[in-house]
Amino acid sequence: MGRTAPTYRMLTESEIQKWNQFRKALRKKDREAFDELMKKVRQHASASSYMASLDIFDSMSLAILLEHEKEIAELKKKIEHVSD
Amino acid sequence: MFLIDCYPDYEENCMKIWWIDKDTDKSVIHKEEFFPWFYVRAFKREDALLEYLEGHPSVTYTIFEKRFVSLTEKAPVVKVVLHQYNLREIASEIDRMGGYELYDLFNVDISFPQRYFFEKDTFPMMDTKKDSPFVVEYETPDLKELFFDITLKSERIPSFSDSLCTVTLQSKEDSFELDGTEEEIIADFVKFVKVFDPDLIYTYGGDEFVFPYLFYRGEQYTIPLELGREPGWFKRGGKSYFSYGRIVYKPPQYLLKGRIHIDTKSSFMFKEGGLDGLIELSRMSKIPVQRLSRLSPGTAISSMQLYEAYKRGVLIPWRKQTPERFKTALQLLKADRGGHILEPKVGVHEHVGEVDFSSLYPNIISEFNISPETVLCTCCPDSQRKVPVLDYNICEKKRGFIPDVVKPLIVKKALYKGNPELKGRRTLLKWVLVTCFGYLGYKNARFGRIECHESVTAFAREILLKSMHTAEEKGFEVLHGIVDSLWLKKKAPRQEFEDLCETISEMIGIPLELEGMYSWIVFLPSDLGIGALNKYYGVIDGELKARGIELRRRDQPVIVKKMQEDILVKLAQADNKKEFFAKIPDALAVAREYVDAVLKGDVSLEDLIISIGISRRLEDYKVNNLSVAALKKLKKEGVELYPGQQVKYIIRNWMARKMTDRVSIPELMEDLVYDKEKYAELLIRAAHHMLSPFVHEIKLKEYITYTKQTTLREYLW
Question: B518-566: per-residue pLDDT in tens?
């Protein structure tokens, strides 16, 4: 394992590497946002790993959406609190 | 009578078995006629084979039989019975004659003691014929033990050219020293061993240095170093080998006849399980204690598998040749995975319980019938028993042979639980069970098969997720999960955690146990900013538990470990999360003390030693690092280390231009210089590592080195 075929975590890291050029061309603020997104991706590496699909970018995107969904829900709750 | 040793006599072509009489404690030797045999399956040119065997002086007779040549296939084979012990030579010759493809050979590389025990259905350390390796209560022989050590006339690193100073002997009753001229000491020592007649000799480094050294010194005075009950030794040279991405050094071996030599320095199994553990495993695996103490747990499980095969009438292939089934890339990606891991939630938590499946992998093997001949068997392609996700079918008709090997080990380990006197036995059984899983996928293991390996991890992942879902349904938050353990959070009494374990155990069919409750636990982040896998520390049922921090790593100086221990001890005074935060200043104060001491030069050099396992020989290193510098210095002293051995050094001047000025060798004790700044940096880094979720590194450094005078509160996030 990890020798014959790379582990899912290794694949994810190399996919992130692939986007390094994209990251390089961003402004500092955007680069920071990019890094935050990748943190979200890594947080769900275990789910992607369990599914073991070959479309790595898809599971990365879904991981980000998931975290965003949670953040939206949290913000919604806060707004309700404010409007009360 | 207890059977304490068994070995072949290659000259007399018989087995020699040593017994100890229970009443008199005297040892007795038995010579036993024993004819070894092996099998050949000829794919072609059987006539040439028979002709060769007929004319061979060692061959007693040959006979045709129909036997299992694999776990599933029967075929005609030739059984070759010998009256001489040159079995390996003959087998090699036949293999060569067949061009390494015409003839398959079986039952060749089984050691003589194993052959003997398999055939007679006896085992080492057995009491009488009525004794069984599967019982949990048994008598062990009262072995007469002797420990000895040597001191040399040497101020530097000991070598063969130094002369012998004293030999210290220690038995259970008393201890004394042999001195005089070197010649007298060696002669007296040999005489003493003969008269005292111990059953067991312990040394510290006997294989690596003490015996080779004594042999060499003895030769100078033509004193033969005979320490066994019969003349002669079983010797083997040392070697370095590669295992799982790591280089390991195996020292030479010095085995006695009729007496047991255990090298307490190099024997992994002795260190882990003690003599009691070794005896237990020796009985189970049918490998004599002396040999077993030099082997790995993997070899023990192999031997048990061979015996199970032997009992089932399955021949043991000399070299394994089942290829893997072809897989697509996606199948490989899905199948070639380990256990499941859930990213931890970084920070400090309270109301946390840790639950573990005990021996999860072996239990899966036994519960779900995972064995090379049952996974993807041809007899039940539509079996209801399937491996989750991978969809491999598992045989419904017969029980696999690996589950039969594993089951008694699991049962025994469970029965030994809770008895501190039997901890050694339990520990070694645990090691054997751990390696047992690894041997399912190991390409050199004779009854290994990668699909079994994949099946086990697939079941394990499914079980961990099922457990996670059940825990969540019951209101627990899952903080972290690794393969067979979960960290669960819920403000609830201990009993509720216990109840959850019971529910899950019943559902899965494998016992889940509450390891304990944490007063608090800290999960550390990785460099990538998310929770690091398996890096945590905390207080579980009043005891400290730490994983993955420097304290447990070998490449750090002792002082770093000591500081981290002291920090942990301070933090351990906290009983909950709130108190934990209140203790952080104390923890920082500890770090500050250590850094101060290092900068002032107020430390013992012992604490600064870094020991690192080397991976190659000096001349093969392409880079210049501190280990290489240390190796070069050692070579100047005439000391050469082998890959897998440890090199020890102190950082002398990290920035020095000349590599050899960067380190010093502790044994040489050139002077008391060390790189204060570098050690301070190592300490600060290690302290920060432990507190990274709570304190920023720069702030921590400023606080510890007094670069800014501010109150402590400002340093916390």
Answer: 999 999 887 666 767 778 999 999 888 888 776 556 678 889 889 998 9
In a domain, B479, yes or no: yes
Instruction: Kindly report the nearest CA distance between residue A14 and chain B, in angstroms.
Output: 14
Please check whether residue A8 touches B, CB under 8 A. Answer: yes
Number of domains in chain A: 1
Distance (Å) from the alpha carbon of A5 to chain B's nearest alpha carbon: 7
Nearest residue in B to A38, CA atom: B528
Residue B60 lies in domain: 35-108
Residue A2 maps to a domain: no
Helix axes of B87-97 and B46-55: crossing angle, nearest 10 degrees: 150
Residue A46 touches partner B, C-beta closer than 8 Å: yes
Residues B467 and B580 occupy one common structural domain: no
Our count of domains for chain B comes to 6
pTM equals: 0.80
What is the least distance, in Å, from the CA of B538 to any CA of chain A?
22
CB contact under 8 A, A39 and B465: no
Which of B329, B337, B530 is closest, CB to CB, to A42?
Answer: B530
Q: Quick one: average pLDDT of A15-33?
A: 90
On whether the CB atoms of residues B258 and B228 are closer than 8 A, the answer is: yes
pLDDT, tens only, B227-245: 999 888 888 877 776 655 5
Confidence at residue B322, expressed as pLDDT on a 0 to 100 scale: 54
**Residues B656-715: tens digit of each pLDDT:** 888 778 888 887 766 778 888 889 888 988 888 888 888 888 888 888 777 655 555 555
CB B644, CB B247: distance < 8 Å: yes
Distances from the Cα of B164 to the Cα of B218, B225, B256, B409, angstroms: 10, 14, 22, 46
B324 within some domain: no
- End-to-end C-alpha distance for chain B, whole angstroms: 70
- pLDDT in the model for residue B553: 61
A61 in B contact zone (CB under 8 Å): no
Rounded to whole angstroms, the Cα distance separating B415 from B136 reads 8
